[in-house]
């Protein structure tokens, strides 16, 4: 029989979500272990580009009993400052983390609880928390294999700086938060940049004297739970609004970048040799992003009016550029494109979890992180409860809720046993 160390709780994932749950379990005195595949906060430290910074203001960093206490609450921490903040949080309570430990299988234990197999020994536990996030497998479409091998392909998780890209132009694919920031990173470095524009929405940065996220927080937008959301399926699956915290923070209007020389196309639809095809949806995607942008401004305007707030006025939004035609195919050689940078997201990998906690599409099923399988939980995912659930803003509330559930179950089991 395989020897197993028993812990009341096993947490898989040593990022901010897993360690936030660990923080509260430590306060409760509940024995547990955190199993981390790499080092603590690996993704923040190793999977970000050099100029990476927060998109939301520093004041939203609210880890358990460890809020941001720096001198720039309305600024945006850069990568090293983020990891310093996270390391300081971990040092504040010394979580029981086993690093470089890959969990290879989780299954139900006969009679109750769970069996956890890992690269550094095996465990049994009464309860399990999955805190691995949703960034396991970088998404690259199958037709990428048809692109001529002379053209370098890279995913955003590998990108660090413009000098990594070969001489010549780069096509950035995707306009979520990462895509637009990588486009800007290359553009500011003087590189020739092409951008495939997807359907991601955009948001204002500063509006009527304040950061738009400050207004939205004041308006209660971030307190809306997934159960209260008018369209929960859309909320869970839609791409985040794009803007940036770079150089003090600013909004990103792709039309302005087009005027500065960035070549814009619609969504990529295929590749063949040195030819790349696009859908004729560039103008529609730009218009949809602007509609989201204006909608946020309008909501802030209404809030200001309804509450008689004294705030400076802003000029009406104007579209400064529009495509003269929809380009549906380009020749990379003719355009001088020598590289493609994929920024279309990630998929989680739950293949190692042999517990019935997923729907037909492989997505975890839970209510505020609590699964129907007794003692099984998820944390750190977007819209676990609110918009902030997958971010620094909401992780304290979510981790405390799960820790309360875990602690109550552990105490109940002790009472039954006695």
Overview of this structure, please?
The protein has 418 residues and is α/β, with parallel strands linked by helices. The protein has 10 helices and 22 strands. It has helices at residues 16-28, 42-46, 79-91, 177-188, 212-218, 232-237, 254-259, 282-306, 332-335, 392-417; strands at 5-12, 32-35, 62-63, 66-67, 97-98, 103-108, 114-118, 121-130, 137-138, 152-155, 169-173, 193-196, 206-207, 210-211, 263-265, 268-272, 275-278, 329-331, 337-342, 346-347, 353-354, 376-378. The two termini are 28 Å apart. The chain folds into 2 domains: 5-136 and 348-417, FAD/NAD(P)-binding domain (3-Layer(bba) Sandwich); 138-342, FAD/NAD(P)-binding domain (3-Layer(bba) Sandwich). Helix 1 (16-28) crosses helix 10 (392-417). The protein is globular and about 75 Å long. The strands form 6 sheets. Strands 1, 2, 5, 6, 7, 8, 21 and 22 form an 8-stranded mixed sheet that branches. Strands 10-19-11-12-15 form a 5-stranded parallel sheet. Strand 16 and strand 17 form a beta hairpin.
Counting H and I runs of at least 4 residues, what is the number of helices?
10
Indicate the radius of gyration in whole angstroms. 23 Å
State the helical fraction: 25-40%
How many separate domains make up the residues? 2
Multimeric organization: single chain
Mean pLDDT: 96
CATH C-level label of the largest domain: Alpha Beta
Beta-strand content estimate = 15-25%
CATH architecture field of the largest domain = 3-Layer(bba) Sandwich
CATH topology of the largest domain: FAD/NAD(P)-binding domain
User: CATH superfamily of the largest domain, called what?
Assistant: FAD/NAD(P)-binding domain
- Class based on secondary structure composition and strand pairing: alpha/beta
Number of strands: 22
In this structure, how is the largest beta sheet organized? 8 strands, mixed
Query: How far is the N terminus from the C terminus?
Result: 28 Å
Low-confidence spans: pLDDT under 50, at least 5 residues?
none
Shape: globular
InterPro entries: Auxin_biosynth/cation_transpt, CHP04046_FMN-dependent, FAD/NAD-bd_sf
Pfam families: Pyr_redox_3
Keywords: Oxidoreductase
Organism: Actibacterium atlanticum
């Amino acid at each position: 029989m395989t020897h197993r160390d028993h812990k009341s709780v096993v947490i898989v994932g040593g990022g901010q979500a897993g360690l936030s749950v660990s923080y509260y379990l430590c306060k409760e005195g509940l024995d547990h272990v955190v199993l981390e595949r790499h080092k603590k906060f690996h993704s923040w430290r190793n999977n970000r580009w050099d100029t990476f910074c927060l998109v939301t203001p520093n004041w939203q960093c609210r880890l358990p009993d460890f809020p941001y206490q720096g001198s720039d609450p309305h600024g945006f921490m850069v990568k090293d400052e983020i990891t310093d903040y996270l390391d300081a949080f971990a040092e504040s309570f010394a979580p029981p983390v086993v690093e470089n430990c890959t969990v290879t299988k989780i299954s139900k234990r006969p009679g109750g609880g769970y069996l956890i197999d890992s690269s550094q020994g095996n465990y049994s536990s009464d309860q399990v928390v999955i805190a691995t996030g949703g960034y396991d497998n970088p998404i690259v479409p199958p037709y990428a294999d048809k692109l001529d091998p002379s053209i370098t392909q890279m995913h955003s998780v590998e990108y660090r700086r413009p000098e990594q890209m070969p001489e010549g132009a780069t096509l950035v694919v995707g306009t979520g938060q990462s895509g637009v920031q990588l486009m800007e990173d290359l553009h500011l470095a003087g590189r020739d940049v092409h951008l495939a524009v997807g359907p991601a929405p955009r948001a204002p940065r500063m509006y009527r004297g304040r950061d738009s996220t400050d207004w939205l927080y004041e308006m209660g937008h971030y307190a809306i739970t997934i159960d209260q959301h008018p369209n929960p399926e859309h909320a869970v699956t839609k791409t985040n609004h794009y803007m940036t915290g770079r150089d003090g923070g600013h909004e990103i209007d792709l039309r302005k970048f087009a005027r500065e020389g960035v070549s814009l196309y619609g969504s990529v639809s295929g590749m063949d040799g040195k030819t790349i095809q696009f859908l004729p949806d560039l103008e529609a995607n730009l218009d949809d992003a602007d509609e989201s942008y204006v909608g946020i401004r309008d909501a802030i305007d209404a809030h200001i009016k309804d509450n008689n707030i004294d705030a400076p006025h802003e000029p009406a939004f104007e579209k400064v550029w529009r495509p003269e035609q929809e380009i549906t195919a380009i020749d990379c050689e003719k355009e001088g494109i020598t590289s493609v940078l994929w920024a279309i997201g990630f998929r989680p990998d739950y293949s190692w979890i042999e517990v019935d906690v997923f729907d037909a599409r492989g997505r975890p099923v839970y209510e505020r992180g609590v699964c129907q399988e007794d003692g099984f939980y998820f944390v750190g995912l977007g819209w676990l409860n609110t918009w902030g659930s997958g971010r620094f803003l909401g992780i304290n509330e979510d981790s405390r809720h799960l820790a309360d559930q875990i602690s109550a179950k552990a105490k109940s089991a002790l009472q039954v046993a006695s």
